[in-house]
Amino acid sequence: MYWCKIAQTEHEFDEIAKLNYETFVEEIPQHEPNPSGRRVDAFHHENMYLIVLKDEELVGMVAFRDIRPFSLDKKIGPVEKLLPADALLGKLCEVRLLAVKKEHRNGRVFFMLTRALIDYAYENGYGAAVISGTVREEKLYMQMGFEAFSEPVGTDDAKFIPMVLTTERYEKSLAGRFKQRRYSFYPGPVQLTEDIQAPLLKTPVSHRSYSFSRTIGQVRSKLEVLSGARYAHLLLGSGTLANEAMIAQLTKLSGRGLIVTNGAFGERLQKQAERWHLEHDWLRYDWGQSFNEAELDSILKQSDFEWLLMAHGETSTGMLNNLEMVQSLCEIYNVKLCTDCVSSFGTYRFSMEKVFIATAVSGKAVGTMSGIAVVFSNHVIAKNEQLPSYIDLGNYSNHNIPFTYPAQLMESFNNALLAYTEGNRYDLLQTRYKKLQQAATDGDFTFLTTEGYPMIVTLKADESLTSMADAAAMNGFHLHYESTYLKERGWVQISIIQPDFDEAWERFKKWYSKYKEYRKIKC
User: Fold this and answer.
1) Fewer Cβ close by (within 10 Å): the C or N end of the chain?
2) Distance of alpha carbon 191 from alpha carbon 288, whole angstroms
3) How many C-alpha atoms does 50 have within 13 Å on its Cβ side?
4) Pairing of the two strands 91-100 and 357-361
5) C-alpha angle with apex 292: 290 to 293, nearest 5 degrees?
6) Residue among 393, 466, 472 nearest 182 (CA)
7) Where's the N-acetyltransferase domain (predicted)?
8) Degrees (nearest 5) of the Cα angle 95, 98, 102?
9) pLDDT value at position 108?
10) H or E element at residue 360
C-alpha cells in the first residue's frame, strides 16, 4: 500500500538523504560523489518533507521551503517578476527536491506527492510552488500541473526549467484528474445523500404557498414527535442562533439562573448569557469532567435559581451530559431547564418533555444542510416587543411563518427526518458508534470520555495524535482536529454522521493499521 506522511524522524531523514544521493548525485550529476552515499540538502533545516511509503519503505519524497531567497531567485532573479498573476495570490514556496525510486516510477507516486503538496500548500495559505524541474522529466512535471515560466538554466549535464504549480493548474492537469477518494469524519457539514440533496435542486416556491406551509407543518410535527416537546419553532440560521433565541427568552424571567459547563459549547452558552446581561452563577467543571450530582443537588437546594442552562451533547469533548439526572433535580427544585441539544438531537432517543426550552439544528446528526435552527418548548411563547423580532420566538408560535424560508432546504430537512419517523437512523448511528467503541476496546484509541453518544468521539491526546491526523489527511481521511480548542489540547475527533461512514471507517482502519505498524518499526 502506498501512503503519504510528513517526515519527522531521524530514520526518515536518513532515508531521504539516501534517495537524494541516488537521484541528484548518481542519476543526475548535480553534486559530487561522496563515500557516505547520502546527500543532505543545503536547506535541510528549513525544508518541510512530504514522503510516500510503500508499506514501510520510503519510495518518494518532495521538499519545500518558503524562506527567501529561493535557489531560483539566485539563478534568475526574484521569481515574482516572471510569474503569472494567478501564482501571486498567496504565499510562495519553492520545491527543492522531487525524487522517486526508479522501481516505483509508475506515475502513482509522483501524483501522490503532488496531491499532498497541493493540499498542504492550500491549507497553509500558499498560492503557488516554484521548482527547478530537470529537463529529462519535463513531460512528467507537466502532467503533474507544473508549467514553465522562464528559460532553462544550469549545465548541459544538469539542466533545469523554472516551473510553477498552482491549485488551479493542478486540477486541470492529468494528475488532477486522478483524484484520491476523500472521506470525512467531520461533525459537519454533512455530505448529502441523493434523497436529501434532490430537493435543494428544485425550483424554489414561495414561503407563502400552500405547498410550503404543508412542508413546514410536516417538519414541525415530526420534530415534536421525535423530541417529546409540545412545540417546535423554526428559524433560519445556525445552532448558535437557536441558542441565542433560547437565551433571549430567559430575559423575560425575573429570577437568576445557573449555567453548568464542562466544554467549549457550554462555555459559549455562558458567554452568550453574559451578552444578554443575565444574572447567573457559573458552575464550571473541567472539560470532559462529568456533572457532579451531589454538588448540583446541594447548589440547587441552597439557592433560589429560576433556570438552569447547559449543553447536553458537548461536541468539544464528545461527552453526553446526564440530561435525565439534571431534569430530575430541576423538577425537584422547580427550576426551568434550558439545554443546547444541537449535537445530541437525532443521535439517540431521549425526551424533552420536561425541559423548559431546548435547541437543535437541521445539520449535525439529522443529516441535511445546516441552516434551520430549531427551538423546542413545552409552553406557548408570547411575543416580546423588547426582543429583536427575528429571534423573538413569539413571532413563530401558532404555526406562524413570519419571515422568508428557502423551501428547498425545508423539504430537504423534511426528507432527512423521514429516516427517523419511517427508518432506522437511530439504530444506524448506534451501530456505527459501537465500531468506534470496539476500536477503543482493541486498544487502537483511547477516548477522552466513556460517557459519549452516537455522534462524535474525542481521542485522548498523546504526542503522536496530531501527526497521525496530518498523515491521515494526506491519505484522504479527514479527521476533526483543526478547531482552535482542539489544537490547543492536541485532541483529535472522529464523527460518525457522514453518510459513507461505514466504507470510510473500513478504509481508515486498514490505513491506520499500516500507520501504527510503521511507527512501531521505524519511530
Assistant:
1) N
2) 28
3) 27
4) unpaired
5) 125
6) 472
7) 4-168
8) 175
9) 85
10) strand 357-361
Phi–psi pair at 319, nearest 5 degrees: -95, 140
Residue 415: count of CB within 10 angstroms of its CB: 19
DSSP per position, 273-307: HHHTT--EEEEEPPTTPPP-HHHHHHHHHHS--SE
Q: How far out from the chain centre does Cα 509 lie?
A: 19
Q: Which pLDDT does position 523 carry in this prediction?
A: 64
Pairwise CA distance, residues 308 & 150, whole Å: 67
pLDDT tens digit string along 3-57? 999 999 999 999 999 999 999 899 888 888 999 999 999 899 999 999 999 999 9
Q: What gap in Å lies between CA 521 and CA 523, rounded to an integer?
A: 6
Sign of CA dihedral 287, 289, 290, 293: negative
Give the CA diameter of the chain.
88
Q: In one letter, which amino acid is 356?
A: F
The pTM of this model reads: 0.89
Cα 232 to chain center, whole Å?
A: 29
Model confidence pLDDT, tens digit, residues 156-204? 777 889 999 988 888 888 767 767 789 999 999 999 999 999 999 999 9
CB 436 within 8 A of CB 501: no
Please write the tens of the pLDDT for every residue from 415-439. Answer: 999 999 999 999 999 999 999 999 9
- State which H helix or E strand residue 459 sits in: strand 456-459
Question: pLDDT tens for residues 468-482?
Answer: 999 999 999 999 999
Domains of the chain: 2-179 (3.40.630.30), 194-421 (3.40.640.10), 425-522 (3.90.1150.10)
- The pLDDT of 289-315, averaged and rounded, is 97
